[in-house]
Amino acid sequence: MVPRTLSVLLVVGTTLSGCGGHPSEPTSRPNILLLVADDLGYADLGSYGGDVSTPNIDALADRGMRFSQFHTAPMCAPTRAMLLTGNDNHVAGMGIQGGALSAPFAGRPGYEGHLSERVVPFPRLLRDAGYHTYSVRKWHLGTAPEHSPTAAGFERSFQLLQGAGDHFSDVALAAGDSVSTYWDDGAYGAWPEGGYSTQVYTDRLIEFIEDGREDGRPFFAFAAYTSPHWPLQVPEEDLELYRGRYDMGYDRLREMRFESLQEARIVPTDHELPPRLDWITPWEDFSEHERRVESRKMELYAAMLENLDRHVGRLLGYLTDEGLLDNTLVVFMSDNGAAAEDFYYEGPFAGWLQRNYENIYETMGTPTSYVSYGPQWAEAGSAPYRGHKTYAHEGGIVAPMIVAGPGVTVAGAIERAYVGVPDIAPTLLEVAGADYPADLDASAIRPMTGTSMLPLLTGGADRIHEPTELLALSHAMHAYVRLGDWKLVSSDQYQGVGTFELFDVASDPGETTDVSERFPERRAALLDSLEAFRVRVGVVLPGGS
Q: Which domains, from first to last, does the chain contain?
């Protein structure tokens, strides 16, 4: 059997020629609202057992379905590429986040750094099928007009084209540039002075939906928020929301999160918390001042998430007031595991960031600061799993996802089936009554690899991926291949003997015990499958082959 890619996110496909009615005709097809939080941890939401106040997102879970085994890519851009195409990130052009400018990757298919010509973005198909298509916030899939949200099929958009930005201004981050680039309704635009990210993007999306209501056509709205992505900045009125809440420290918070996930039935009670990273400083070894600084990081992260929830509530409230919500399928998700990066203190951008921001305790969280919460708190966000963002271990790729609205038949359900980002595109296309191009024999366009999740949403199936189906993913130096409950995963090199660990994730979801020596034949077979996957999608190995 040919291995299939497992992307992560909810996506829907439609036809290039359009179906389900002429674009100007009113239709009873549901609206679709796709909400993406940036770097949100698995254990943060109240509905997943977290301690942050997220009543509006939790209300979606109450009337919809929570997924406990939703898999993404390990980082933002490859997830977004898979989300918008229903395909593997290499086929979609994002083999390495941001593309590749040097050998052996430069100029190679799969490393374009923008959506490739081998895929058809599903918003383009939805638009051709009669949907209004709107997007706001983070793009991260190219900055040229030909690689813009407009080119991908969005009728209206206001988006940050880079992967990260200041939440209060157009100051660029993690790129060394002085100003971020924005795309505003088909042309380069500017940041509205004085705005805060979640409010600005929610305002614009409501504006788009309101302006397009007159013709009665359904809409697809994509809100790709950058919250709670670093820098951890919040409006003044939110600075004190969580003061003192995390004085117990990250070690204890991680234990509490794991316990609450079990109480919420997200994590089975027979699962065990994996050991934490041994190089992280134990909480008790910090001085009183160091503890204050560390606690403040998590306070700000929680405040950002509550702020995001408030604006999600504004958006859902608008749809409710206008009589639109009952006919709107809502998907809420995170794009990867909790983020451990801290570019202010290390990495290629540290000097630039330190010249433009301060990180003193008194101003943490304000527009003058640049705060990240680091791997110590990210581990608490990934509580039941090993690792965090960038890694192909479960902590980097298992994320929260909630689906609510028309067709979701069991309110408050927890769905434990394995699903991934590429499965979202075919799901949304089916919901919209649209099809991916069928005649691909003489075309460079590749078929989608995702599977529609509609049977899970309607209660018609208990899984969409069979235990015999091979699932694989590669990004930069990290890769995994999975067959049923067996997972082979790398954390330091894509290919090569001795660089992979083998886990039975059914009995060991925390990936604590490498069983390669007990099952050498299974390990070898999965390595062979990963090699076949590599050839099929065009992965370039670090050695250049």
A: 4-537 (3.40.720.10)
